[in-house]
Amino acid sequence: MGQLFGTLQELRYTQSLPPELWQQCWSFLVAEDLLIVSSTCRSFRFICKNLLFKHITTTIPYKRTVRHIFQPRHDDVARIARGHRLLSRLHDLQSASGAREVLGLVETWSIRTFGSPATLEDTEIMQYEKACFPFVEPSISIFLILPSCRNLRVLSISDIHMEEERWSALVKIPQLECLNMERCNLSSTDKAMKLKVVSITYETHRDPPPIPPPTTQLISSLFNSRHLEKLTLLDLTFSNSFLLGLVRVGQFENLMHLSVVVPETHIDTLFAFLSRTPSLTSLTISNFSTMAKPSKPVLQSVIPNLVAYDGFPTLIPILFPGRPVSAVCLRMNHRTDPQASLGDPFGVYDNNVVCKALDDCSASTRVVHDLMLSPFHPTPDSMQDIVRIHPNLRHLRLDILRTPNINIGVDVEEPMSLIMDMLADTVQVWNSDNFSLHPVFLISGFLNWIANGHLPLPAKLETLHLHYYQKSVTVCGDAAKQRLLVPKISAAYPALHEIEMGSTRWWREGDRWSHEVLTRTQL
């Protein structure tokens, strides 16, 4: 690497390619490597500067109590030191000669706290100078800097108490289009914003934030009906307040994407809001919702342009007829218990519900070409239902249920030994090709079943993604065995050009299949 950099320092090499191409090359490097490259020559320093400051992540090492600041425990010493270093850097961004140029390069900024998002009591702060608080000052200073970022378009905030002073700073950011807030306490404000993308996530209901529900003024200020294009509302504590407030705001003519958590008692409120979103094309119903059917008939004039649905099968007979839905994600862990509380992970899964849901999808005015099932119980019958009902699928994703589905209907003539094997997650089927046994509920066994004709796929399928249900990372190793199975699957399904199994991806160019280990986390 040192020899390469030494060669690149020569003037004829750095000037032989345009800066845009060098920027594309260095864009694949992490921040540490970019710093090394930037020290090789002036040209690379200029190029890397744009990349280094294009996306910024700031972590505030927050601590709630004064005792931990002036009588720190051993683990708090390093955190306090980080807080002082961060405060020093923020002051440099405010006062240094080149700060304005650097801030002008920022397009995405992520701000989060490490620790409790709760604020210190005013009585505690008044006893000491603010300069002694390395956890309070950075969260104040950083919001004073944001209005100077003239090209900042995406801002993500986590675990921050959004007071009036901070709202005022956000309003002054000239190009801000996207605001993501996770676990933030939202106080009221009358500062109107012109955001195209808004995401509010607070996926906890056990420890609700100690603030009142969002006011109508806050909702109308945050969600601009003329500019909003994409909205994500996954606030389990105040989801009902947000829905009721959105209905009162008015018509959202440009809203195209909506992701929302819906309490059972507010399903009518959801459809009242949907009637005000004529341009909506994508609707996602969160897993934390408790589904029910609306009390009134839903007109076909409501969301007439819907093309993508991600949610529970309960709403398919209502949303699909007369609408051009072609991409479907079915959440089969829907709640049927009316006593289930919002956010309760308990769900019901039944193979008959899957088959009916697949059949109901055919009511769409378009042929479904993209399908996801989560969770999915891998049996020959369930796969045959997919092929029979939707033979024209191009893309299929399955979140495999590793443990057997206890709600599956059991044939009275089925051997008890097989039922016990299912409950032990060790169902095995004899493979006549190599006289070996393969587990049904493992992705490796699922792939083997497909290769040997035990499980069918749609004939026109182009991509197949397999993951384990509710697993943050799905690791499927043993590339040697997969290398034998993939060509057999390809021969049976010639349109298939990509198979992804969690951390493993196979993709085809022409007749050759290539193997890739994915480094990103599979969600």
From TrEMBL:
Domain called F-box: residue spans: 17-57
Superkingdom of source: Eukaryota
CDD domains membership: F-box_SF
InterPro entries referenced in this protein's UniProt entry, alphabetically: F-box-like_dom_sf (IPR036047), F-box_dom (IPR001810), LRR_dom_sf (IPR032675)
Protein's recorded name: F-box domain-containing protein
Organism listed in the record: Suillus placidus
